[in-house]
Amino acid sequence: MALEKIARRIPSSSWEVTSERLIDIVLNSKHANKMPSGLAKTILYYWQRDQLASEIGLQRLLEASLHIDPEKTIEALKELGLQELVTVLESH
Amino acid sequence: MTAFGIEFVPRDLYWKTTFYAIQAEKTGFNTLWITDHFNNRNVYVSLAIISAYTDKIRLGPGVTNPYLIHPIVTGQAVSTLNEIAPGRVVCGIGVGDRTTLHMVDVQPSKPLSTIRESVEIIRGISSGRKMKMEGKVFTILGGKLNFKVETKIPIFIGAQGPKMLALAAEIGDGVLINASHPKDIERAMMFIEKGVIKAGKKLEDLDIAAYTSFSVANKLEDAAKAVKPVVAYIVAGCPESILGKHGISMETATKIRQAIVEGNWKEAFSYITEEMVEAFSICGTPEMVVEKISRLVKVGTTQIVAGSPIGPNIRKSINTIAAEVFPQFMSKEEIEGD
Known about the structure:
The structure holds two protein chains of two kinds.
Chain A: H1 3-7, H2 15-28, H3 37-48, H4 55-68, H5 70-79, H6 83-90
Helix pairs in contact in A: 2-4, 2-5, 3-4, 4-5
Chain B: E1 3-8, H1 14-27, E2 31-34, H2 43-53, E3 58-61, H3 71-84, E4 91-93, H4 98-103, H5 111-126, E5 131-134, E6 139-143, E7 155-159, H6 162-171, E8 174-177, H7 182-199, E9 207-216, H8 220-237, H9 240-245, H10 250-261, H11 265-270, H12 274-280, E10 282-284, H13 286-298, E11 303-310, H14 314-325, H15 332-336
Parallel strand pairs in B: 1-2, 1-11, 2-3, 4-7, 7-8, 8-9, 9-10, 9-11
Antiparallel strand pairs in B: 5-6
């Protein structure tokens, strides 16, 4: 399943808090240098426009955090109660 | 009104520095300074990408130096940046960081003449004039930019010693006082006033920034731990006259500088005492930091630059500054930039 469809499973009530967690993972990871430059620029584009807590912003953040630190991302999603999302991600 | 600037050292991945720059703009910082050391990411590349992803924050090198980059290139660079971010560019220039200049065996000779002529060159070239100069340091036989610079670019001069402070006030649009302690700022103001009088200017026309090393966290020990490496660099590059006022020997400063040059970070940081942190940084909990800033404002600063490291976690510390420091010094409209 494409990442966009997976990200759409995040309920809108959790967009803000999920965005915050994923941003923390992306900024603080020891593997941050794995971030593809194009994806980084896309995230910056959405950040500039206050859209990191929107559906499209979350898709890009999820893509980035899974790329940089999949274990921490899964752990964060579990802590946020997004078990359905975790199940889909782990099955891929 | 007290304005707040922020400094980033582009030691981090470009997109992280840019992320924090966007955050700084959103939270109400007025000016963003990017440091210029050869061993970090290039200052103008960093500024170019930041200017593309921000909309209103002022930005510029803080500070470049005319020993590694000819001022005509600095004039070219800030003029080009002004095309990407019209009206938002500022140019900070100074003699540079002694430690990194030492690494490439560059001596900051004739500092006063070098800075005076550099400012003249940057102003001249960015004003569209054909530059011609026969100075004590620089010679320009004739040259001008092939493009127009639409807005004037304010020049801030980084200064610490008496003569440079006076010069900065005389010829600059702003002074970046390399100090964090009210005692040092108060002393600096004496020399700034001399420069302002010499130029026939008013003190109110000058932007007087305390360019501090800054670290805020909910626990003092976390803030102190983050700031120690930066204080080490500051002590290593500090003039003897300033060190003496804080009871620090030149011998200690030299040992720290040598350790840094050799890459012995543990040894360099081991020399840093609580007294040095107090003297050369604004460091502590939000309440402690507010108190220290108040003292700087009282002695005449118009801009507080929150310099590296900002805090143990940059994103959290920027939010802490916005939530707990800004409201003590700025109105809601001033914070939102209305």
